[in-house]
Amino acid sequence: MSISFKWVKQMIRFHMTPNYNRNKNLWVFGCWGGNKYSDNSRSMYEYMLEKHPQILAVWITKNHSVFQKLKEENKPCFLVGSPEAKKILRNAGVAFYTNSIMDFGNIDYLNGAIKVALFHGVGFKLELREYNKEKNALGVALRNIKHKMYCESFADLICTTSPFMREKFARQQYNADVSKIEITGQPRNDIFKDYSLQNHNEKIIMYLPTFREDKISQDKLQDAINELVNSDKLEDMLIENNAKFIVKPHYLTKVSMNKIRKNIFVYNDADIPDIQKALLTTDILITDYSSVASDFALLDKPIIFYDFDYEAYKRLLSNEYQNCLQNSYVRNCNELLSLLSNILKGKVDLTQVNKMINYYCNSPKLQIGTFCDNVFRAINAIIEKKSLINQK
Questions:
Q1: Confidence at residue 323, expressed as pLDDT on a 0 to 100 scale
Q2: 156 CB burial (10 A radius; 0-12, 13-18, 19+)
Q3: 276 shares a domain with 386
Q4: Higher confidence at residue 171 or residue 251?
Q5: What is the strand order of the sheet 77-79 is part of?
Q6: Mean pLDDT along residues 142-160
């Protein structure tokens, strides 16, 4: 266990600046280190603006482009570090994040606020605490003490999607006992109730691979993507079936197309600012270990798992992942193209794959279109409980 000077400074500042007399009708939202306007926080923020105007919902960002965009749309937004943002954070009653409290900047002004962890996906990848268990009991104890003293990802409420994910979050998050974890669904997936967006003439196939952390794995991913986008066989298949193939890699992944393609496209974040809306118009998803599979399974459309490095990667996955692969698992480009061709021709039924993913990741008790409502009710329950305690 390591303790940095930055952590000590943050911990001391946090405990020296509490505010327990906060405005319960002032809610702040942030995501991805303050750099993006996306994900579950965005969906919950826009829901609050539309459905609950009695609550002042404010977006906090360090991205000037996001700031300008929201200001032009007359949505409350302030820049990290500005006097307005500091004042709001010091008084906010509720704070939503996807990564950690650092979504609101490097200084934590939220001691006393109700912190809500929406995170940015549920899936089968193991978090550090799950696969890198310390054998030294003293080390484990010291790490737990550290996180009880101060933790950037501390939350009063963690929102997830199923009993399986509830137990998984309890194992992987520090200071997250099961009582803090509510099965609400992910706010960003409420968009899936709008099936009108699915109407389009050509089939859309989207490849969303997981970013690999080490260089060797990243090089293999780049090779796999480049083999696909330069495949004449794939291009011919797409033309024959009136389909488009879209690759949306991580921004650090380098993709090189040897020739201009009519039906193969490589998009970046600017091209697809809202992944959920893109999923709604996607007919076939190709992914690997990404949590996007749990989102797409709600739409009950074909998912292909292109796991060319499965043997090397499986140590980072929970055992349940393998149960979901079934006949959708391919190991190389040729297998991928063969399965894709059979799906386009209607020769393969991957319904059981979605059923298995949903069994683990999406509770059948949740209804698409109610996820934001569920989060809102869970927060109000906490607010009411705190009010009753304060009255005693």
A1: 94
A2: middle
A3: no
A4: 171
A5: 77-79, 56-61, 23-29, 92-97, 114-117, 157-160, 181-183
A6: 85
> Whole-angstrom Cα distance, residue 89 to residue 84?
9
How many independent structural domains does the chain possess?
2
Q: Which amino acid does the sequence have at 238? A: L
Q: What share of the chain is helix, strand, coil (3-state, %, to 5)?
A: 50, 15, 35
Tokens of 381: 């329950």
User: Is residue 3 predicted with pLDDT exceeding 90?
Assistant: no
Whether the per-residue pLDDT at 167 is higher than 80: the answer is: yes
CB neighbours of residue 220 within 10 Å: 15
Residues in the chain: 392
Structural domain range at position 124: 5-185+367-391
Average per-residue pLDDT for the chain:
90
Instruction: Name the percent of the chain lying above pLDDT 90.
Output: 70
Contact between 60 and 127 under an 8 Å Cβ cutoff? The reply is no
Return the residue matching tokens 């021709």.
345
Q: What percent of the chain has pLDDT over 70?
A: 92
Contact 285, 267 (CB under 8 A): no
Shared domain for 178 and 217, answered yes or no, is: no
Q: Are residues 23 and 151 in the same domain?
A: yes
